[in-house]
Design goal:
alpha/beta; 25% strand; 246 residues; 5 helices; Rossmann fold
């Protein structure tokens, strides 16, 4: 019985030593492989692939930026976050992801901003990203609604209200060209024929109710809006009209 226990203990020790030797060998191989991969001059970045449907960003510009920052650097040791951040600083870039493809390639996936409206004097608003961005608008002439407010963080609110106003006006056959929220939180909207509708202040859908009430009155009275310079809807009952100067 004692001999049997000694043999079992001996086998256990041998097995343990074998496992330890395998672990040590694995660690050594891993360290050697890591050193080889991270050694200067190994796995240099040689190619950049730009992935994405681009309309406003230049593939060459993206590749040039990536080349200047990463060309020749060790792909295994390369951190992609700095390149992603640099590319996100391009005005039209909404989202950027940089992936490594061994042995020598970077794949850059880019999603552009999709402008839903002009914002103030120099910006555009991306409704999907809920973000204002400021590209060069020299050659951008899309027929979008113009939104404005004192601060950029108000853009999602102004856009949401503009969508509600646009739907209400569409049912009446009218076209809206601009919505403004001023510094006292008064909404104004501009129609395509130049008429300004002053909707005033209001939480929730109060300004929308004022607009819908006005549109119902216009249809009922067959009112000619083209005679008006502006219409003030900030009344509990009725509205005030300033006619255009002759």
């Amino acid at each position: 019985m004692a001999l049997h226990r000694g043999q079992s203990r001996g086998r256990f020790i041998v097995g343990l030593l074998f496992c330890l030797s395998i672990c040590i060998l694995t660690v050594q191989l891993d360290l050697r492989l890591k050193d080889a991969l991270l050694a200067p001059g190994s796995l240099p970045v040689k190619a950049v692939v730009i992935d994405g449907a681009l309309k406003h960003l230049s593939r060459k510009e993206l590749a040039d930026i990536a080349g200047k920052m990463c060309a020749g650097k060790n792909l295994a040791a390369l951190s992609t976050s700095a390149l992603e951040q640099t590319l996100l600083e391009l005005p039209w870039a909404a989202r950027v992801q940089v992936r490594k493809q061994m042995p020598d390639k970077l794949i850059i996936s880019v999603i552009e901003h999709v402008p839903a409206a002009y914002w103030n004097e120099r910006g555009l608003y991306d409704a999907r990203a809920k973000q204002v961005f400021y590209p060069d608008l020299t050659h951008f002439h899309e027929p979008l609604v113009r939104l404005s407010a004192p601060h950029d963080h108000l853009a999602p609110e102004v856009y949401a209200q503009a969508v509600l106003y646009m739907r209400a006006l569409k049912r009446s056959g009218l076209q809206m060209t601009a919505v403004d929220l001023d510094n006292i939180r008064c909404f104004r909207l501009q129609l395509a024929d130049g008429v300004t509708l002053i909707l005033g202040r209001g939480e929730g859908d109060l300004t929308l109710k004022r607009l819908e009430r006005f549109l119902q009155a216009v249809r009922a009275a067959d009112f000619d809006l083209q005679r008006a310079e502006y219409v003030d809807l900030r009344y509990d009952i009725g509205f005030a009209v300033k006619e255009r100067s002759l």
